[in-house]
Design goal:
The protein is of the alpha/beta class and 364 residues long. The protein is 34% helix and 18% strand. It has helices at 19-31, 58-61, 98-107, 119-130, 155-176, 191-199, 214-226, 265-277, 297-315, 350-357; strands at residues 6-11, 36-39, 54-56, 83-86, 92-95, 112-117, 135-139, 179-184, 204-206, 232-237, 281-285, 321-326, 329-334. Helix 1 (19-31) runs parallel beside helix 9, helix 5 (155-176) packs across helix 6 (191-199) and helix 7 (214-226) packs across helix 8. The longest helix has 22 residues, at 155-176. Bound molecules: 6-O-phosphono-beta-D-fructofuranose. 6-O-phosphono-beta-D-fructofuranose (F6P) binds at residues 14, 76, 118, 141-143, 185-187, 238, 261-262, 291.
């Protein structure tokens, strides 16, 4: 067993419940092997400005697994290969500062970086691996859209929060005979909308994988009305779009960030339903509540398992990989099998079939 290793860990992209549990498992499993673990602040930016790198000891992390967020911070704007930097003239230009990251990593004598993140952060990890840095990835995202792993941590918590919100919307929608449209996260995959929509008894679920027809959505709502169901709950994934239409985004995104910020589909759908059916309709955006607070027991356990597995993978020297859940085992998969791919809802899956069987409309 290699002794005396010095491990760095960072968390990148949007936060997700379970990040602290990964950190806890890495620190405790590392400590039991007489390794030192250091937290890199705010994704990769902590390897550019190294002042805030912190030694993580068992005392600092014990039972942080129950806490949301990440004790080492995160960012979705810190790609060292495309970093926005102000030049002498005060203008912002995009520069590749990855060599500086490698230089600091070597100077601090780290043996490996555990990169906990979604597709963006893991792509950066892979690029660093190609430059010679030993890395092991851990898959995180509430969106559950990462390839090569059955599930990512954060997803179960987000679905639970969305389901609870749906449960609460039922009583108010029913009291007012209203249509309530709830917009949930998930980027270009419909996992959160699908799983919460079924569990929370939605009448309509709109997901990016099924471009929807507004007339079909409205026909379904009116058909329910004829049969005595005078209210309806519609779940719209933020990346859903009408057939022949496009996704709705909030502006052009942010400097240094790769992906657009989605949002607005719920409002669009609600307005169309009100116009076409004449029904009293409201929309709400569940937003960042889906990422906040404690992880569910499932996410907590999965995150602890992922963190401990990452340490075992380092021990085996399998760098350039990501830990992945392939029930019943957790294994290492090459990072190149994960990046630039997106795991979308399989329309032939039994989950989608279940939704259709119990009368949920996808607008198709
Ligand atoms: O990827 C996680 C996620 O929460 C997406 O579901 C959502 O589109 C995005 O991040 C929101 O990003 P931000 O927190 O930067 O607004």
């Amino acid at each position: 067993m290699p002794k005396g290793l010095k491990i760095a860990i960072n968390t990148g992209g949007g936060d997700a419940p379970g990040l602290n549990a990964v950190i806890e498992a890495v620190v405790l499993a590392g400590h039991n092997r007489q390794w030192e673990v250091y937290g890199i602040r705010n994704g990769y930016t902590g390897l550019l400005n190294t002042d805030e790198i912190m030694r993580l000891t068992p005392e600092k992390v014990r039972h942080i697994s129950s806490q949301g967020g990440t004790i080492i911070g995160t960012t979705n704007k810190g790609n060292p290969f495309q970093m926005p930097i102000k030049n002498m003239a005060g203008e912002t230009e995009i520069r590749d500062v990855s060599d500086k990251v490698i230089e600091n990593f070597k100077r601090l004598r780290f043996d490996c970086l555990i990169a906990v993140g979604g597709d963006g952060s893991l792509k950066i990890a892979h690029d660093f691996f190609k430059k010679g840095m030993p890395v092991v990835g851990v898959p995180k995202t509430i969106d559950n859209d990462l390839a090569a792993t059955v599930i990512t941590f954060g997803f179960d918590t987000a679905v639970s929060i969305a389901t609870e919100a749906l449960d609460r919307l039922h009583s108010t929608a029913k009291s007012h005979d209203r249509v309530m449209v709830i917009e949930v996260m998930g980027r270009h995959a419909g996992w959160i909308a699908l799983n919460s929509g079924i569990s929370g008894a939605a009448s309509v679920i709109l997901i990016p994988e099924v471009p929807f027809d507004m007339d079909k959505v409205c026909d379904h709502i009116m058909d329910m009305e004829i049969h005595g169901n005078r209210y309806a709950i519609v779940v719209a994934a933020e990346g859903a779009k009408p057939a022949g239409g496009s996704i709705i985004a909030k502006g052009n995104g942010e400097l240094g960030r790769q992906d657009v910020i989605l949002g607005g589909i719920g409002d669009y759908v609600a307005k169309e339903i009100a116009k076409k059916t004449g029904k009293d309709t409201r929309s709400m955006v569940l937003g960042h509540l889906q990422r906040g607070g404690s992880p569910t027991t499932f996410d907590r356990l999965l995150s602890l398992r992922f963190g401990a597995a990452a340490v075992r993978i380092i021990e085996e020297g399998k760098f350039g990989t990501m830990v992945a859940l392939e029930p019943p085992v957790i294994k290492a998969v090459p990072l190149e099998d994960v990046i630039d791919k997106i795991k979308r809802v399989d329309l032939n899956s039994d989950t989608v079939q279940t939704a259709r069987d119990i009368g949920i409309c996808f607008g198709d």
